Amino acid sequence: MSNSASNNKSFSSLTLDNALVSNLKSLAYHEMTPIQAQSLPDMLAGKDVIGQGKTGSGKTAAFGLALLNKLNVKRFRIQSMVLCPTRELADQVAKEIRKLARAIHNIKVLTLCGGTPFGPQIGSLEHGAHIIVGTPGRIEEHVIKGTLNLDDLNLLVLDEADRMLEMGFQAALDNIIDRSPTQRQTLLFSATYPKQIKAISDSIMTDPVMVEVTSTDEKSNIEQKFFKVEDDEHRLGALRLLLLDNQVDSSVIFCNTKKETQLVASMLHSDGFSVLALHGDLEQRDRDQTLLRFANKSAAILVATDVAARGLDIDNLDLVVNYHIARDSEVHVHRIGRTGRAGNKGLAFSLFSDKESYKVALLEDYLEKVIQPELLPSNEVLSLPRPSANMATIQIDGGKKQKVRPGDILGALTGDKGINGNQVGKINVFDNKAYVAVRKTVIKPALKKLANGKMKGKSFKVRHLVS
């Protein structure tokens, strides 16, 4: 445990650059979360730190502030690198760092991930950057080909290190670290702390300070319930009853395998539920679109595997269902920690059969509580209407490269006899595509408005994304 962790929760108590502190105030970051208060003093002092904390603990802002404070903007060299398990998480981390860096001019943050063309990334690297955020596979490729030079790297962050190992990135991580300067600061963040993490930290870190934030206080606003089922057929029926009896805006159902994820999603879909599936067999483009549509409320239910759901950052997730108990008790806690965030109330339901009673026993030890199965809702709820999504997603075949900005899309939708601004939801603009969520009730006029109107003096193809 860190001895230098201060009891003062204010960011101004740290040895942080004044510009960073005033920017934090403008972002309404008033006081540090437990993981920030415990890890930042050591990180700012240049020590290697292992932070163990769940998603939503504020770890991104913690290492983001540490790397920005260490950065010398005048040296246009790659000085910091953050490795993440998925492209979604890398995008999220880069976005947070840019937000924290707003008060420091000319900071260049570059994202390097697989699933996007290699060529343009080489061009971006030739233009230079201060901070690289990316996935191990793609970064390893750049390092081997010599398009990414790490000679000036003085800070390396491994974010969600447990997942990177779980996803098979050990060799890529070794390769990248072997090509990094040995004289550097290393920060490692992980929700769980398995043996391989200890092995990796022993080999790449120097006297690391261990910071652990327990999740008991943070997760007290999650109501957990367990339901016993007889077999797989009964399990699906139980899931249907729970979803109908607890009609919420957004639910995630965790399955242990890709096959089961697809099966559960298909069964719910055929029963009239608004549902999407997310697993590793999907093409990157389909995964991106699925996450985007769930985040913008165009689907009420997401059925996912653990690996695919990394980087899932939904602010108001109402319900998490474990279709089977997770293989690992720490994964169970990580799954349910996705609901009940930012002071909101959350629900977490878990289904189990006799075959899984050993997992329940392990979970009882881990949670230090006796698990009593609850009664399932009655079959009367089957006559209720299925929870449906309020929004629909429109894809526009134009993006940043065509100079399309969110304001252009909003303007095209709401201009002359258009729809109301409050009927428009999230807008996401990528290199060659953009997506906008609109209320389901206005999907037809919205499509017509975008198809017939012009943005930046051009017409773009549009389509309604449906499952």
UniProtKB/TrEMBL annotation:
Record's keyword annotation contains Nucleotide-binding: yes
Similarity comment: Belongs to the DEAD box helicase family.
A Pfam short name: DbpA
InterPro entries tied to this protein: DbpA/CsdA_RNA-bd_dom (IPR005580), DEAD/DEAH_box_helicase_dom (IPR011545), DEAD/DEAH_RhlB (IPR044742), DEAD_box_RNA_helicase (IPR050079), Helicase_ATP-bd (IPR014001), Helicase_C-like (IPR001650), Nucleotide-bd_a/b_plait_sf (IPR012677), P-loop_NTPase (IPR027417)
Motif (Q motif): 9-37
Protein's name in the database: ATP-dependent RNA helicase DbpA
Record domain Helicase ATP-binding: where: 40-211
Domain DEAD-box RNA helicase Q as annotated: residue spans: 9-37
UniProtKB keywords: ATP-binding, Helicase, Hydrolase, Nucleotide-binding
Cellular component, GO annotation: cytosol
Signal sequence, renumbered to the chain: none
Record bears the keyword Nucleotide-binding: yes
GO molecular function, one term: ATP binding
Record-annotated Helicase C-terminal domain positions: 221-383
